[in-house]
Amino acid sequence: MRTIKLTTAQAVVKYLVAQRTVIEGVEKPLFPGVYAIFGHGNVTSLGVALDEHRHDIRTWRGQNEQGMALAALGFTKALRRRQIMVATSSIGPGALNMVTAAGVAYVDRLPLLLLSGDTFVHRAPDPVLQQGENFGDPSITVNDAFKPVVRYWDRIVSPEQIVQSLPAAVSTMLDPATAGPAFIALPQDVQAESWDFPLAFFEPHVRTMPRPRAAADEISAAVGLLRSAKRPLIIAGGGVHYSGAEDELQRFAEQHSIPVVETVSGKASLLAAHPLNAGPVGVTGCTSANELAARADVVIAVGTRLQDFTTGSWTIFKDESTRFIGINTTRFDAIKHRSLPVVGDARETIAELDSQLSGWKSEDSWVSFARAETGKYHAYIDSIASLTALANDGLPTYAQVVGVVDRDAQPNDYVLTAAGGFPGELNNGWRAKHRNSFDCEYGFSCMGYEISGAWGAKMALPKSEVISFVGDGSYLMMNSDLYSTVLNGHKVIFIVCDNGGYAVIRRLQVNQGGRPFNNQLEDCQPAQLTYVDFAMHAAAMGATTETVQHIADFPAALQRARKHDSTYVIVMKTSPDAWTGGGSFWEVGVPDTSHRPEVVAAGEAIREAKKQQRVGW
After folding, report:
1. Predicted local distance difference test score (pLDDT) of residue 393
2. I want to staple 468 with a disulfide (CB 3.0 to 4.6 A). Which of 67, 454, 566, 587 is the partner?
3. Pairing of strands 544-548, 568-573
4. Where are the alpha helices (H) located in 409-497, listed in sequence order?
5. CA–CA gap between residue 74 and residue 450 (Å, rounded)
6. Residue 189 has what pLDDT?
7. What DSSP string describes 17-36?
8. ∠ CA 223-366-431 to the nearest 5 degrees?
9. Domain segments of the chain: what residues?
């Protein structure tokens, strides 16, 4: 057997470089880059190895470990899981900073390879800098904190272990049934140790996306159920995008006259103007989608894990006899709420169902109802998004800000957001004119993704205009990758809307009977109420900035941003109280007893609404 003597770190990098994938017929690296912040746990070995391969795999300097891992996810999501980025940190706080990003990847089913330094296996110098000692188990380090939020976890304690561990990690990330983050801890001493690795381990390996086929009996059962349906409804989830099933979904819906509603992750599966697209569903959804959910007799859930924001905490399906068909690569998701499971790739499964449903369509009256309701939804959005519909406080609303970008949408626009009030506003008000043009991280609702994720998205889509909507709260929580976009020449347009704090959570707080407390800046007992000049702050990081005083001036500002060749930040004061309506019930925990009658009343309303919930199992 031919071998090559390498350190563990060198072997890790050499293996990653050898992994290839095919995108639209072109062979490309499976791992195109590494986001890195070096410290004593990874600079002397892994850092050296990455430097040796700087022409084979690009290393990008991060500003914050969580941010760079979120950027990796923004990159991967923009490419629909076709390529995987790597994030590496030192030990201790650097590693733990990535746990939140691992949680995002875990919840959103996104592949991400995390490589972290670790303490010495031989323990001779223990305790080392940044080591958290476990009194009862010396084998535990802070890296064990990743175990609940990754799909694959390993600690390499001998160089030859990577021959088994790295292929297992890659396979886990690429399998659509287990897609998610993989974590590998690399102790400092083991990184530097060498071994005679087999050359075959580093041979180029072209990876393809598995497309598991559903069992024939599951397809047959789904066909039988659908043929009995009069009012079927499709819920398009993120799996539609990851499978590349958009064409098949549209063809299937058209052939069988089935209205389609979209989850946050599934948005832009169909164009918003398609006559069968009934809009976003659930808590951040619209009246048309939720009305259809209330009347549907068979629901086809495609590539969705049916989280509470999609199902209105399982209250939007009013008909107790409604049946579900779960099309998913993961059986765990396919069987939810007594769904008839069809475990397989979305694209292939939809095509098989289509071939066996020849001649069957839903009732004409059902499609007519869907179109009428959808027309009301679009009319409502048009009315609140106009430039003249100011809020009672005279400030522009989120709906107006989104409306400007919606009306100005260009073929290469890629719109992105994450937490706070923007997910609901964009899910309703930004109406996709192009497929795969939207990213809202709302599985984990991670504040800060708006900036870091946008950096990664621009890296993945260099020819697209990436437009990120950011609230003041998210901006303050994590803004350092705005500098990353400037430093590395990745232009992003950031629209920063300042409504004075965590306004959407204050809305929840007040709507459930609480007093305004600790959410808006004015309600957090400040010693000195000081507002941030976000334009000045962004300018200090090298961005071109401007502050828009009136919503009527925003369209021109957006055009200036489009024409600019580097990161551009537009800042506006917006209303903290004006929100788009049309969503559904959402269950939150409200006290049974309280000295505030408003809280008691809110609790009673929650318990009354819960009577509409479907029993899960």
Report:
1. 85
2. 454
3. parallel
4. 422-429, 449-460, 472-477, 480-487
5. 9
6. 97
7. HHEEEEETTEEEESS-EEEE
8. 95
9. 3-207, 216-376, 386-573
Q: Which two tokens stand for residue 609?
A: 């609404």
What is the reported pLDDT for 111? 98
Closest CA to 534 of 474, 468, 456: 474
CB 85 within 8 A of CB 133: no
Q: DSSP 3-state assignment of 204?
A: coil
Query: What single-letter amino acid sits at 233?
Result: L
Q: Is the pLDDT of residue 117 over 80?
A: yes
Alpha-carbon separation of residue 375 from 233, 272, 274, 370, 378 (angstroms): 17, 11, 11, 9, 5
Architecture, CATH, for domain 3-207: 3-Layer(aba) Sandwich (3.40)
**What is the rounded distance in angstroms from the CA atom of residue 401 to the CA atom of residue 387?**
9
Strands (E), 101-227: 112-118, 152-155, 181-187, 194-198, 205-207
CATH class of the 386-573 domain in this structure:
alpha beta
Q: What's the pLDDT tens digit per position in 264-297?
A: 999 999 999 999 999 999 999 999 999 999 999 9
- Please tell me the least confidently modeled range out of 334-343, 382-391, 452-461, 497-506: 382-391
Give DSSP secondary structure letters for 257-313.
T--EEE-TTTTTSS-TTSTTEEEE-STTS-HHHHHHHHH-SEEEEES----HHHHTT
Instruction: Give the β-pairing of 3-7 and 194-198.
Output: antiparallel
Of all helices (H) and strands (E), which one includes residue 604?
helix 597-609
* DSSP-assigned states of every residue in 345-357: -HHHHHHHHHHH-
pTM: 0.97
Q: Terminal CA-to-CA distance of the chain, rounded, Å?
A: 55
Could you tell me the fold of the domain covering 216-376?
Answer: Rossmann fold (3.40.50)
